[in-house]
Amino acid sequence: MDFDLFVIGGGSGGVRCARIASGHGARVGVAEERFWGGTCVNVGCVPKKLLVQAGEYGAWADDAAGFGWSIKKGPHDWGKLIAAKDKEINRLNGIYRRLLDGAGCKIFDARATFIDAHTLDVGGQRITAEKIVIATGGHPERPNIPGADLAIISDDTFYLPVMPKKIAIVGSGFIAVEFAGIFQALGAEVHLIYRQPLPLRGFDQDLREGLAEALAAQGVILHPSCSPEKIEAAGAGRVLTYGGGQTLDVDTVFLATGRRPMTEKMGLEKVGVAVDKNGAVIIDAKLQTSQADIYAIGDVTNRINLTPFAIAEGHALADSLFGKNPRSVSLENVAAAVFSTPPIGTVGLTEEEAAAKGPVDVYVAKFTPMRHTLSGRARKTMMKLVVDQATQKVLGAHMLGEDAPELVQGLAIALVMGATKGDFDRTIGIHPTAAEEFVTMRTRTRVAGVAKAAE
Question: Looking at the whole model, is its pTM more than 0.85?
Answer without folding.
Answer: yes
